[in-house]
């Protein structure tokens, strides 16, 4: 019966089946076996291939959409996305060091600290947690006594269990991670946003003010370490990239 497949079971590698489906599809895309524009099998086809429920396939497909690897077209199906050009604009910055280098006083205010399970409806959180707990941290970086950036961070305690005991009175979460957990891969996405009521209050802005959001994820040998969203007032932060001619 179809209902017997609702519970997701691990694949042979021990990873949840939706992760294995995602990895299989991603491997075909990155290897070039499925070029841009190639139609990905329909969800019903993948359900039959992997012997699983639609929910499991949907989790895998949603994660691939979020990663920019596939696009969904209404009534047509899912297709391999055409690659976008990404420029390496940012390293992993130490905000405290940058502010102090400008000669301004720095402070970090921790607003919230919670250890929790991943939201099962958010594939990105489930992948980051790797079966463990998440440490959720909200805080504000101040420069010269004024709010400089709002930070909302999730940390996989499976990757950094010692962080659970840190109170961040003497060190910021980002600086702690830079010191204690070496990362091997990072991704930054940069976008313009307008301050909602909460962001405006925390950053001392007018509601609707222009802001810059940096959404960054880091991994260590394929396992998630942290995901952080930092929101800066539009006039407080510059992104600078310096390039030379290619060989």
Kindly name the structural category.
alpha+beta
User: Which radius of gyration do the C-alpha atoms yield?
Assistant: 20 Å
Number of domains: 2
CATH class of the largest domain: Alpha Beta
The CATH superfamily of the largest domain is Chorismate lyase-like
Look at the structure and give the mean pLDDT.
85
What count of helical segments does DSSP give?
Answer: 7
SSE sequence, one letter per element: HEHHEEHEHEEHEHEE
Quick one: how many beta strands?
Answer: 9
Estimated helix fraction: 25-40%
Largest sheet: 6 strands, antiparallel
Describe, in plain words, how this protein is organized in 3D.
The protein is an alpha+beta fold and about 250 residues long. The protein has 2 domains: about 1-80, Winged helix-like DNA-binding domain superfamily/Winged helix DNA-binding domain (Arc Repressor Mutant, subunit A); about 95-235, Chorismate lyase-like (Chorismate lyase). Helices cover about 25% and strands about 30% of the residues. The chain is built from 7 helices and 9 strands. The chain has helices at about 15-30, 45-50, 55-65, 95-100, 125-130, 175-180, 195-205, and strands at about 40, 70-75, 75-80, 105-115, 135-145, 145-155, 185-195, 210-220, 225-235. Strands 4-5-6-9-8-7 form a 6-stranded antiparallel sheet. It is globular. It starts with 16 loop residues before the first helix and ends in a 14-residue tail after the last strand. The relative contact order is 0.11.
């Amino acid at each position: 019966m179809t209902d017997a497949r609702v519970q997701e079971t691990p694949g042979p590698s021990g990873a949840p089946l939706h992760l294995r489906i995602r990895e299989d599809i991603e491997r075909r895309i990155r290897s070039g076996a499925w070029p841009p524009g190639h139609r990905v099998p329909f969800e019903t086809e993948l359900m039959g291939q992997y012997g699983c429920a639609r929910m499991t396939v949907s989790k895998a497909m949603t994660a691939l959409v979020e990663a920019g690897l596939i696009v969904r077209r209404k009534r047509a199906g899912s297709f391999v996305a055409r690659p976008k050009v990404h420029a390496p604009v940012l390293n992993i910055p130490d905000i405290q060091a940058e502010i102090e280098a400008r000669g301004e006083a720095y402070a970090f205010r921790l607003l919230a600290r919670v250890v929790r399970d991943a939201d099962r409806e958010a594939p990105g959180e489930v992948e980051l947690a790797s079966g463990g707990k998440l440490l959720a941290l909200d805080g504000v970086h101040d420069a010269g006594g004024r709010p400089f950036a709002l930070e909302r961070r999730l940390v996989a305690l499976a990757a950094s269990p010692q962080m659970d005991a840190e109170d961040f009175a003497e060190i910021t979460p980002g600086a702690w991670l830079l010191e204690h957990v070496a990362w091997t891969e990072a991704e930054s996405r940069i976008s313009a946003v307008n301050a909602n009521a909460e962001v405006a209050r925390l950053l001392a802005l007018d509601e609707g003010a222009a802001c810059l959001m940096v959404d960054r994820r880091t991994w260590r040998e394929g396992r998630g370490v942290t995901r952080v969203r930092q929101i800066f007032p539009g006039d407080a932060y510059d992104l600078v990239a310096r390039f030379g001619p290619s060989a």
